[in-house]
Design brief:
about 0% helix, mainly beta, globular, 3-stranded antiparallel sheet, 6 strands
Amino acid sequence: MTDQIQVMQNRITDSNGAVVPGASVLYEKKSGTNTPVLVYYNAAGSIPASNPVVADAGGRLRQVFYFGADQVRATIKRRNWRDN
C-alpha cells in the first residue's frame, strides 16, 4: 500500500509566521526506534527522496510517498538536518 505523506501547511514557518528556507523534515518510524524510513518522490516508488527532506528557499517541501507498514513521525528542524 502506498501512502502519500502530506505536510499540513504549504510552507514551513516559524512562530512569527516567517518562512524558514532550508528547513528539514526527518521521517522516521514512530515506534521510538528513531529509524529513518525510505520515502519516495513519486507514487511508483522509483524516485528515492532524501531523508531528511529539505525545504526550498520559499520553505516549501516536495510531496513524498511511503510504502511501509509502520506509523511515521515527522520531525521538523529549522535548518538542514546535517548542520545541527
